[in-house]
Design goal:
The structure is a homodimer of 352-residue chains. Chain A has helices at residues 18-31, 43-51, 54-58, 75-82, 87-96, 109-120, 155-173, 194-205, 219-224, 234-259, 263-271, 273-283, 309-324, 327-351; strands spanning 5-10, 35-41, 60-64, 102-105, 130-136, 141-145, 179-183, 212-217, 229-231, 291-294, 299-302. The first copy, chain A, folds into 2 domains: 5-120, Isopropylmalate Dehydrogenase (3-Layer(aba) Sandwich), CATH 3.40.718; 130-284 and 333-351, Isopropylmalate Dehydrogenase (3-Layer(aba) Sandwich), CATH 3.40.718.10. The termini of chain A are far apart. The first copy, chain A, has 352 residues and is α/β, with parallel strands linked by helices. Chain A is globular and about 60 Å long. Chain A has an 11-stranded mixed β-sheet, with helices on both faces. Chains A, B: Pathway: Lipid metabolism; phospholipid metabolism. Chains A, B: Pfam families: FA_synthesis. Chains A, B: Catalyzes the reversible formation of acyl-phosphate (acyl-PO(4)) from acyl-[acyl-carrier-protein] (acyl-ACP). This enzyme utilizes acyl-ACP as fatty acyl donor, but not acyl-CoA. Chains A, B: It catalyses: a fatty acyl-[ACP] + phosphate = an acyl phosphate + holo-[ACP].
C-alpha cells in the first residue's frame, strides 16, 4: 500500500450517476486529503462534472468505459454484458490488481455482489460473503451482519460472521474486544433457530476468542446498542434493517404532522428548531450509508443507490477507514487465530 | 353464543397479576358493557382488588386456583405442573368447554401457546399455530403474522397464514377484500426465500381467493401500510416486530433528549405540548397490545406481560371484536372456500 489511500470509485453507479457521485467524492477528499481516486465511467459524463471540481480532478485518474450496469438488471444479466468492461467491473478489478485499496459503488447490489465474488474470490476459510451495516444505537453505533448477501446460515457461517464483524468493529470503533450477540427470538437458551443455538453453544465453549460473546439478542436490543456486533443470517437481517428504516420514516412523518397541527405547535417548533435540526442529523440515514461486503479478497463498499453527495461521501469515508485501519489484515488474523480453535470445538460438538 | 360476549381472563398472568389485570378488565367493561368475565386465579389476591371495582365484580364470575404459571418457565415445565389446574389452563378450558367465547392471558407466551395447542387443538387443515400482531402504519393499522409462534414456514403454511390473516383483517378493519403481501427481501420475483417465492407463485395463480394478493413487500413497506396483511414465518416476523419496537423507543429517546437541550427547545416543547401528547398517543404501544393466536379451535389473545391496565384493556377489546365479528367462523369459511382451489394449485405446481 502506498502512503495514499487509493479508492476505486464506480462513477456510474446509483440512481444519479456522476452528478452526485463525484461531488460526494469531493466532500470525502476534503476530509481525507490523503486519498487518491481511480474513477471509472463514461468520460463524456464524468469530465464536465470533474471540470467543476478542480480539487477532485487533481487527485483522480479517470478510466473511460461506456458500459454501465443498470440498477434493475439481474446479477446474471449484469455479468453477461458487464464483465471485463463495465465501470463496476473495472472498479473491482482495480482492487484485484492491487491498483486500489478499496472499491466503492452505488450500483445494483446483486450485480455488485456477483461481480465481487467472481472477480475478487472469497477469503480462505469463508464460503459465503456477507453485507455488514452500521446501525445507529442509543450508545453510538453497532455493526449488524449479514443484512442480505445470502439467505440462511449454518452455525459455521454464523461463527464466521461473528469473526468478520468483530474484526470490523475493532477497525471502526477502535475497541480491542468487541461484544458479539446472536440475533434470535427469545433470549432463553431453549428458544429460536437450531443453527443459532448451536452457534451460541460453540461460541460459549470456545476459549481464546478475540471478542466477547454476549449471548442471544432480540430485535429490540439492536437499537439499544446491547452489543457492538449483531450476527444474523441475511434474510432476517435484511428485514430487520428495512423495518427499522421504515419505522424511523414513519415516526418522522408522525412528528412532522404533530408539529403542524396547531398554531401553538408551530410556534413551539420555531423555538425548538435547533433541537429538531439536531434530531434530524442524529436520524440522518446518510451518515450510516455504506454496506461493507465481507469475506472477499478485497474490500468493497456498497453505497445506497439513492444516496446524495453527502451519503456518497459517508460511504467513501467508511472505505477509507477500512483501509487505514487494515480491515482485511485484521479479518485474516481473526480467522487464522480462531478458526482452528473453533473447528476443534465444532468437531467436539459433533462427536458428543 | 349468548347475547353477552363471555371473556375468560387469566387474572394471574403478566408481570403484575390481578392488581393490573383487573383494573384493565374494568376499563374494557366500561367500553363494552355487554361483556361477562370469567376470572381465574387466586381469590386471596383477586378478591381485595375486585372489592374496589364493583362494576367489574358484578359482571364477573371468579374461579379459584392457587396454581399460576411463572413468567420464565419453559413450556414443558408449565404443562407439567400447570395442566388441568393453573389459572392459564382454566382460562383456556373455559373456551374449550364453550363457557367462554375468547381467552385472554398476559402469561408466558411459550406456555400459553403450548397449553392452547394441547387443550384447544388445531383447526382442521391447519398444522401450526401463528401469532398475529396489529401494526400501526402511516395509513392506519395492518396485521402482521406470524410474529413468533413457530420458526420457518413452507409455502402451504404461508398460504394458510394469508388466509387466516385476511380473515382477521376482514373482522378488525371491516374490509371485504384485504390486500395481502408476502414479506421478502427484494421485490423482484427472483429474489428471496424459495418457499416465499413459491407461495407467491401459488397465490398469483390461484383464482377466487377471498383477498387481493399484492406480491412481495419489504421490511420498510410494513410501516407504510402498503398492504392490510403482511405474511411471514415466525423468526423473521418476531425480529421485525421487536426491531420496530426498539427503533420506536430509540427515536422517542432521541426526541426527549433533543427537547431538553436548550431553554429554547424546552420552551418550544411547552408550546407544542398538545402536539407531543398526540404523538405520544399515536406511538403508544399499549393501543396495539394483544397478539392473536390463530389456527386453534378457539380464540386466544396474548396480552403483553408488561402491559399496564390500559394495555390489558386493549387486549381485551381486541378479544371482544374477534368474538363480536365472528373471527373463527370467518377463518373457517376462508379455509373451506379456498383450500381446495389452493390444493389444486399446489398440485399443479408440483406436477409442472
Amino acid at each position: 500500500m502506498s502512503d495514499k489511500v487509493r479508492i476505486a470509485l464506480d462513477a456510474m453507479g446509483g440512481d444519479h450517476g456522476p452528478s452526485v457521485i463525484l461531488p460526494g467524492a469531493d466532500i470525502a477528499l476534503m476530509r481525507h486529503p490523503d486519498v487518491e481516486f481511480l474513477l471509472f465511467g463514461d468520460t463524456a459524463q464524468l469530465n464536465p462534472v470533474l471540470d467543476g471540481l478542480p480539487r477532485l480532478k487533481a487527485a483522480s485518474k479517470v478510466t473511460h468505459t461506456d458500459v454501465a450496469i443498470r440498477m434493475d438488471d439481474k446479477p446474471s444479466q449484469a455479468l453477461r454484458y458487464g464483465r471485463w468492461k463495465s465501470s463496476m467491473w473495472l472498479t473491482l478489478d482495480a482492487v484485484k490488481k492491487g491498483e486500489a485499496d478499496v472499491a466503492v459503488s452505488a450500483g445494483n447490489t446483486g450485480a455488485l455482489m456477483a461481480m465481487s465474488r467472481f472477480n475478487l474470490k472469497m477469503l480462505e476459510g469463508i464460503e459465503r460473503p456477507a453485507i455488514a451495516a452500521l446501525w445507529p444505537t442509543l450508545k453510538g453505533e453497532s455493526i449488524v451482519l449479514d443484512v442480505g448477501a445470502s439467505i440462511g446460515a449454518d452455525e459455521s457461517h454464523l461463527i464466521n460472521l461473528a469473526a468478520m464483524g468483530s474484526a470490523m468493529a475493532r477497525v471502526l470503533f477502535d475497541i480491542e474486544r468487541p461484544t458479539v450477540g446472536l440475533l434470535n427470538i427469545g433470549v432463553e437458551e431453549v428458544k429460536g433457530l437450531e443453527q443459532v443455538r448451536e452457534a451460541g453453544r460453540i461460541l460459549r465453549e470456545t476459549p481464546s476468542l478475540d471478542f466477547d460473546y454476549h449471548g442471544f439478542v432480540e430485535g429490540d436490543d439492536i437499537g439499544k446498542g446491547v452489543v457492538d456486533v449483531v450476527v444474523t443470517e441475511g434474510f432476517a437481517g435484511n428485514i430487520a434493517l428495512k423495518t427499522a428504516e421504515g419505522t424511523a420514516h414513519q415516526l418522522a412523518s408522525y412528528l412532522r404532522a404533530a408539529m403542524n397541527r396547531t398554531w401553538a405547535s408551530r410556534l413551539g417548533y420555531l423555538f425548538a428548531r435547533a433541537a429538531f435540526q439536531a434530531l434530524r442529523e442524529k436520524m440522518d440515514p446518510r451518515k450510516a450509508n455504506g454496506g461493507v461486503f465481507l469475506g472477499l479478497n478485497g474490500i468493497v463498499i456498497k453505497s445506497h443507490g439513492g444516496a446524495d453527495a453527502e451519503g456518497t461521501a459517508a460511504a467513501i469515508d467508511m472505505g477509507y477507514d477500512m483501509v487505514r485501519y487494515k480491515l482485511l489484515a485484521k479479518i485474516g488474523q481473526s480467522m487464522e487465530r480462531d478458526l482452528q480453535a473453533r473447528s476443534a470445538q465444532i468437531a467436539t460438538g459433533a462427536a458428543s
